[in-house]
Write a structure and sequence with these properties.
The chain is α/β, with parallel strands linked by helices. The protein is 28% helix and 28% strand. The site of NADPH dihydro-nicotinamide-adenine-dinucleotide phosphate has 29 residues, from helix 1, helix 2, helix 3 and helix 9. Residues 12-325 form the Enoyl reductase (ER) domain.
Length: 327
């Protein structure tokens, strides 16, 4: 069988993204073949394209999609042909119509959740789940606690605004424009700071009456790292989970001594290393989406053929919420 796919032959800019035709075979043990209905776009795709996260070439990009299972390999028991399904993978390869992939991270998609929503929410929603529910300071987050969430109007950000509100947390969101700040507030952020114009650490201290916050979730990285530490209360946790502005390189551990702070660099792929954990996390995500407390905001759609433009817009901070590639 043939499938259209997006591939790079070397790391580089969006111009390296090429539409090709690939041959797709039958699933081996532990694998499925899935025909996609929609594909999710994620910032991590840009790291894998640019080489910030290096891969062997050629590389078929993409970490998220939804579709219908066509065939299952030996040993796969949680899925069968005909099932609606969605996933956040490794390995990369979701930018295509049809693929064979490991079944481990693929979950059945509840009938009440559309294919587009499924494609947009798996990587970003499972990330929000582990950040808010599995990456906590020692005593846990309690209703009423303040947290800071950077890039709050982005894909992960708008899901986090809603999920934090549902948990009773006071999320202080940051974003690069006033319009994006309004969007974060409309999705449940308690406060929003335009970090292009304002010193966000000073504003966070004002909002919290000088106390600081329990956790800062920082996907911006290089540009926000030191300011994020300055937002913490004593014993607070900084979770650096992305590199929007570039990676955080070596830093002086002495910075943590200002408040006995903790720093972690978590990734979804450690959390979804087993089928059982992946399913438990996905069940929580499906439940909160089905309850209506979290709505998945799909703010951009691009045909798969326009993937270069999709990458350009994402990296130029032109997008809000989630983006999907349509087939
Ligand atoms: P977003 O939709 O949030 O897009 C990234 C946003 O980062 C931009 O819209 C922009 O918002 C902000 N940003 C700040 N500085 C820059 C910069 N210099 N260049 C580009 N963007 C910048 O993307 P996703 O929702 O896909 O992902 C959000 C982040 O979470 C990414 O950093 C991603 O790598 C990370 N992530 C990490 C995971 C993990 O497990 N570790 C899993 C999933 C995502 P603004 O204009 O408001 O500043």
């Amino acid at each position: 069988m043939k499938s259209k796919a997006v591939r790079i032959d070397r790391h580089g800019g969006p111009e390296e993204l090429k539409i090709v035709e690939v041959e797709v075979g039958d699933p081996g043990p532990g694998e499925i073949r899935i025909r996609h209905k929609a594909v999710g776009l994620n910032f991590i795709d840009t790291y894998q394209r640019s080489g910030l996260y290096p891969f062997a070439m050629p590389l078929q990009l993409g970490m998220e999609a939804s579709g219908v299972v066509e065939a299952v390999g030996e040993g796969v028991t949680h899925l069968k042909a005909g099932d609606r399904a969605a996933y956040a993978s490794p390995p990369p390869g979701s930018y295509c119509e049809l693929r064979v992939m490991p079944a481990k991270t693929v979950c059945r998609l509840p009938d009440a959740i559309s294919f587009e929503t499924g494609a947009a929410m798996m990587l970003k929603g499972l990330t929000t789940q582990y950040l808010l529910r599995r990456t906590l300071p020692a005593e846990g987050l309690q209703p009423g606690d303040f947290i800071v969430f950077h890039a709050a109007a982005g894909g992960v950000g708008l899901i986090a605004c809603q999920w934090a509100k549902a948990l009773g947390l006071q999320l202080i969101g940051t974003a690069g424009t006033d319009a994006k700040c309004q969007l974060a507030l409309a999705h449940g952020a308690a406060h929003a700071i335009n970090y292009s114009k304002e010193n966000f650490a000073e504003r966070v201290k004002e909002i919290t009456g000088g106390k600081g916050v329990k956790v800062v979730y920082d996907s911006v990285g290089k540009d926000t790292f030191e300011g994020s530490l300055a937002c913490l209360r004593p014993f607070g946790l900084l979770a650096v989970f992305g590199n929007g502005s570039g990676p955080v390189s070596a830093f002086n551990l002495g910075l943590l001594a200002k408040g006995s702070y903790y720093v972690t660099r978590p990734t979804l792929f450690t959390h979804i290393a087993t089928r059982e954990t992946t399913q438990a996390m996905a069940d929580e995500l499906f439940a909160i989406v089905e309850s209506g407390a979290v709505k998945i905001p799909i703010d951009q759609r691009y045909p798969l053929e326009d993937v270069q433009q999709a990458h350009r817009d994402l990296e130029a901070r032109k997008t809000t919420g989630c983006t999907i590639l349509t087939l």
